[in-house]
Amino acid sequence: MEKLTVVKIGGNIIDNEAALKQFVADFSSIQGHKILVHGGGKLATELSAKLGIETQMVDGRRITDAETVKVVTMVYAGLINKLIVAMLNAHGNTAIGLCGTDSKLLPAIKRPVVDIDYGWVGDVLKQEVNTAFIHTLLQANNIIVLAPITANANGDLLNINADTVATTIAEAMSAEYETTLVYCFEKKGVLLSVDDDNSAIANINEASAEKLKQEGVINKGMLPKISNAIAASKNGVAKVLIGHAEDIKALALNMEGYGTLISQ
Amino acid sequence: MEKLTVVKIGGNIIDNEAALKQFVADFSSIQGHKILVHGGGKLATELSAKLGIETQMVDGRRITDAETVKVVTMVYAGLINKLIVAMLNAHGNTAIGLCGTDSKLLPAIKRPVVDIDYGWVGDVLKQEVNTAFIHTLLQANNIIVLAPITANANGDLLNINADTVATTIAEAMSAEYETTLVYCFEKKGVLLSVDDDNSAIANINEASAEKLKQEGVINKGMLPKISNAIAASKNGVAKVLIGHAEDIKALALNMEGYGTLISQ
Known about the structure:
The structure is a homodimer of 264-residue chains. Chain A is of the alpha/beta class and 264 residues long. Chain A has 9 helices and 14 strands. Chain A has helices spanning 11-14, 17-28, 42-50, 66-90, 131-139, 162-173, 206-214, 222-234, 248-252; strands spanning 2-9, 33-38, 56-58, 61-63, 95-99, 108-110, 122-124, 143-147, 149-151, 157-159, 177-185, 203-204, 239-244, 260-262. In chain A, the strands form 4 sheets. An 8-stranded mixed beta sheet of chain A has the order 5-8-2-1-11-13-14-12, sandwiched between helices. A two-stranded antiparallel ribbon of chain A has the order 3-4. Chain A has a two-stranded antiparallel ribbon with strand order 6-7. In chain A, helix 6 runs parallel beside helix 8. Chain A is globular, with a radius of gyration of 18 Å. Chains A and B meet through helix 4 and strand 5 of A and helix 4 and strand 5 of B.
């Protein structure tokens, strides 16, 4: 099986030009096939503010109204996506920037309203991921750069969660590739002590995750990340890691002492 | 040879939601391989104005400063591109939205400063168009939707002219495809009398174009369009037409009574 590395980067790296440049150089040097999933950082919030669009949050989640989905499509699928592609190409790669509606990579439905109406937010139809086309692009030596935007069958643009996109793609491609999935964030892994940057837990599995949750070590935003990671491991992704973007080269190789390795 | 239709649409259609919907439905029904090149309409100018970025024009051409290239990348390669892709997909197609830096489709240099510094504007390197990848995408039954944005080898994003992009792509693909190139605009063709919408000239060639220029029938914005069209005809594009977006189905078939057919 050929190797595939799927990396998700978040706002903290995108908002910092020097950090993004370094990350692109490092990511560029990883051997084998590569997919990069990115969010959009503060830029979408800033642009919304400048345009007088109020950012609505419910339970820490952004509500995507009709104006907001236009803004995130501009920022994520437009500026950030093409900036990263151009930077990767300047390093001698051939990168292609896409979102989920391109070639129907990530067909989705508008999230059904249960308690909260999230607005123009999508839930990806995992069984319909266009793995054949992703395979074609990878075999043509493209690095795929994916923005977390897609559309439903009606042609409505939808905002999707970048962690979920990375997880879904990694799972879907695991039948054909020995896949490593790395979620990058601003910490060196899942920290045993939130104030100690050097307290990253080397290994977490489903049982120890449960214990860490009860102890309150895993909480808030880390909860869905760990759930996603364990699910990925169960669904065939060979290696799943959480760590710092500045360690991406070591994380992609699962080098000892870098990040948290999550298994089922 | 398989058939390929390359269509360029401009701001007038993009700014009008009903017209765009009708255009997408019509374009969708054209047989054979298809590439759609779009501009961005008033949206980029409006967004710049809202963000307090002054639009600088010299001789009717937009000067693209560092802030403006970000705005056009957001609007062209982000919102407009993905909106059209989602609409095409909702019609049962498989469309893919790209700009010139994706898979190095349209390598370019920053336009050298002679009399005017156009800023972050690119000149496409015609010999380096990635025709192999366009061929791969078309053979996988993708409709390619192209935004007029690219990058240079340094990774700087550049604004490029949509008419030129359509011309360059049509010329480059003509070795492998029997290509029809249609420039859509808000008139029914090259008009003999500017006030008479029904005075479209059926055929123009290089000699008659020269005469029409001297008579002042071809002037202003139509001059570069006709030059592009004649060049395309000389460079192997089977059919080159100028006409109204609402006639796209008839234009793609070169039906009598629709648009102006340009030949060398």
